[in-house]
Design goal:
12 helices; alpha/beta; seven-stranded mixed sheet; Rossmann fold; 2 domains; Helicase, Ruva Protein, domain 3
Amino acid sequence: MANLGISQNTIAILQKYQFRFQKKFGQNFLIDTSVLERIMNAAEITKQDCILEIGPGIGTMTQYLAERAKKVFAVEIDKNLIPILGETLAEYDNVTVINEDILKVDIERLVQEQNGGKPIKVVANLPYYITTPIIMGLFESKVPLHSITIMVQKEVADRMQEMPGSKEYGALSLAVQYYAKPEIVANVPPNCFMPRPTVGSAVIKLTRYEQPPVIVKDEKLMFQIIRASFNQRRKTLVNGLTNASFLQVGKEKILEALDQMGQSASVRGETFSLEQFAQLTNLLCGN
C-alpha cells in the first residue's frame, strides 16, 4: 500500500472514497513522513509491543505502527473511515480496527485479553476537543501503560509540562505530572496536516511512572483540592477551598494546615507544586 504520509496518496484515497471531513470528530490527517518517523522514534516501538492507536483516520500512522509493533489496536469512531482502513491496512495481519468511541471502550479488558495484562503503549494523533478526557481517562482507569506518545494542540502540550507560577500552569499540568514524565518531542506546524488546523501542534511523550513522585493518603481528595484551587485563579487558596462543598473541614483547619507548611493565608493555588498539594492533602486528611 502507498505511504499515506505523502499528501498525493492521501488525496487519492480520499477522492476514491469521496470522503468528507467531519468537524465534530476534529479530523486532521498527518501528511509529513518526517513527523511520522519522529513519533515512531519517540514512542520507541519494538516487535514486543502492543499498541493502542486512538483515531487512526485513514491509517497513515497505523501503517508505520504495524511495520514496527507486534500488535496494533486502532480505535476509530467514524464509521465512514472503516472501509478506507480496510483497504489501507489490508496487508497487515497484526492490526485490529475497532469502530467505537474510545471513551466507551473497556481498554483494561482489551489489555488483559490481548496483551496478558502487560503494559501497552498508546500512540495517537488526538482530536483536540477531546484530548484531556482521553489522557485523564487512560491514567485514572489504571490501565497498564508504558507510555503515551501523542500529537496535541501546542498550547495543551506546553500546559502539560508547565511548572508553578506560570499563567498556563493548572490542574492538567499537575495531573499529568503526577502520573507521568512529560517531554515535548517535536513542534508541528499546520501545513503538516490535511485539512490544515488553525493552530500549531506538538508531539508529547508521557512516560508513566511506576510509582507517583509524591506520597498522598487520598489521591481523589488531592485532585479535588487541585481543581478547587484553580477554579477561581484570582482567589486565595484558603477562599477557594473554604467554598468547596467536598471539603468537610472549616477555614481554621485550612489555615492551620498552611501554617504547618510555612505558608501564608494569602497564598494562591497556582504557586503550589505537586509536592505541596500532596502535603496539604495529607494534613487535611489528618484533620
